[in-house]
Amino acid sequence: MINISKLTGYNKQDIRNVVLLLQEFVKTYKDNKIKLNYQSRPVILFLSTLIATAGIGVFFTFRSIVTKYNEYVLSKRLRRPSLIRQSSNILKNGSREIFIQKGNGKVTRIIIPKANNDQYAADKYLYKDFARNEQILQQQKGRLFNSRFLNQLTIIWKILIPKFYCQNTSLLLSQCFFLIFRTWLSLLIAKLDGQIVKNLIAADGRKFARDLIYFLLIAFPASYTNAAIKYLELRLALGFRTNLTRYIHDMYLDKTMSYYKVGLSGADIQNIDQYITEDVTKFCLSLCSLFSSMGKPFIDLIFFSVYLRDNLGTGAIIGIFANYFATAIMLKKATPRFGKLASKRTHLEGVYFNQQLNIMTNSEEIGFYKGSKIEKSKLAENFQKLMDHMSQEINLSSSYAALEDYVLKYTWSAWGYIFSGLPVFLDVLFPKEDPASGHIADIHDDEHGHANTEDTNSTTENMKTFVTNKRLLLSLADAGSRLMVSLKEVTTLTGITNRVFNMLTQLHRVHDPKFDYGDKYGLTDIHGTYQLNYDGLRLEHVPITVPTSEGSYAEPLIPDLTFDIKGKNLLFVGPNGSGKTSVARVLAGLWPLYAGLVSKPSDLFFNPQKSYFTSGSLRDQVVYPNRSENATNDQIFHILHCVNLDHIVKRYGLNQNLDFAKTLSGGEKQRLSFARILFNKPSIVILDDSTSALSPDMEELMYQVLQDHKINYVTLSNRPSLSKFHDKVFEI
């Protein structure tokens, strides 16, 4: 006998024995000529998988060729493919077509569907109805599958899969098919496993080799199926995230300026950037992962239970599921509130992240003030809160994991061994009668002292049944344990779903044209009127009030503002904090108009105190907020020359993408803002301290440029010296 337990020290006799063993195996194969049944399931599944793989490979190869050809055509058709804004078009159906440059000059075409404002207006009532029934739903908070969570998920589900005939539906149905197919393969593999053990005990080399080949063949579609399930899970998560993100963007970034109003809503929602990026991603991944992790064991429970019922009987299956339910109840009572823990951890991570971002954004100002010590203490405080919570979460998870591992992995496996051994023990305790003689069959030896062939077959058959049942019962126990773990993941998903749902609720609230700005008196407190297409700028008895929960009853910055200008230039002058910028906020619709009348032109333009520069090139900065398809080089050159920025063009060109907020000086930023005004050509522009960083001669040039282009302006400043550039002065 060859000692295969040692790794070294083999002699020539051991090597000779190995060679003889291989020769004997080859001789046995030639003599028996192992015949495969090409109509057997393993062979058919293997060949079908090969054909399907080849077909998919041909399809993706053909699609890759078509995609590369389209990219080549687009790169030739686009005049300046490196500019994203210049590569944007509005199609006839209202969708936006954009072209994004990839590596090596390649261009990808993306279609962004038109925002369905009618759908958003209808959806807001779903969120209002949910909020109205909040108190009733809170009573079911203790349940695992509480109606609050399911109702939230049902409402969000309409965003993830808006209609039946869509890509996400096909991905979901495909995943269901592969989950069922994987369970069926597991059943076949369990049967084949028992057959291999039976052949091994019976020392039937020919059948053993045949079934081993079958096992290797069926492993190919099984591996393919596992990979397909994971692939579909990730693709479905990506599809869900795409639909949900576009839904959020359509409300967050539109003419209602929800991105600004969400900070004035008075809602318990902070760091909305974290909600839109991290929470949406976690929600989609967790939901799709939960579907796979719950769907597979649930299907396994059904398939394996039906098969085991025929082998073990109904009583055994009832006992198994009684054990499952008993342990499920026990674990449920011992389960910490992972949903609340995850939600709080996400909130603390957001606070810590934004503290880091604040230091990065205001590093220069902090450096001037020498505020490192106080910023460090705040950072340490937020970090310590996060660490304390994570430590608590780890402690609770560890103690629960020990209990869960013992119950699900070992206790359930022990019950699996007990029930899988029942048929064998029952045959020994209650032997079957011999149909021919009517006597109980007994094990006996033949005249040569060898065991009876029938007894040997019975033993091997019992072993086959035991191995098959054992594998299925262990798989059943594993399915039950994975289902229990998935139920724990539901509590985590509940917390993430609640955060995403709260974000959507607040977005619908601020997106509503009747948004009340958190006013506790509601819309009845906001009764001012906006009049558009006015050939000047007029305010009649308008109070300038900071939006708070007190509404119009709060103390106003300016109690009653009235003026009317047509074809003239007006200077608002007053000290800091007097409400000058607040006037611009009311004119722009950022703050509520509690009373009075505002008449303004439809093309009223605003130039805020802090110059904003979007990502992109110098061309993009000049034409913002418009697209630059129709902006010629000569036009932009002329505008930049008017504001004395010729050197910027020579230095960076028009099409080089830069971070202009960091590249330009303060004066260059303000002059570039004036270039933006010249390109948009408004009838009136609001200048909110827009020349504070300019020298006196350059400041005079900017105002002269506006006058030369016949653009009227209203300046908000604390410098009376600017009155020489204006026709009227209004002191606050």
TrEMBL record:
It comes from the Eukaryota. PROSITE patterns: ABC_TRANSPORTER_1, ABC_TRANSPORTER_2. The chain crosses the membrane at residues 43-62, 171-192, 212-232, 312-331. Residues 440-453 have a biased composition (Basic and acidic residues). Residues 440-460 are annotated as: Disordered. GO terms for biological process: ATP transport; fatty acid beta-oxidation; fatty-acyl-CoA transport; long-chain fatty acid catabolic process; long-chain fatty acid import into peroxisome; peroxisome organization; very long-chain fatty acid catabolic process. Pfam families: ABC_membrane_2, ABC_tran. The keyword Zinc does not apply. CDD domains: ABCD_peroxisomal_ALDP. Belongs to the ABC transporter superfamily. ABCD family. Peroxisomal fatty acyl CoA transporter (TC 3.A.1.203) subfamily. This is ABC transporter domain-containing protein. The lineage of its organism: Eukaryota, Fungi, Dikarya, Ascomycota, Saccharomycotina.
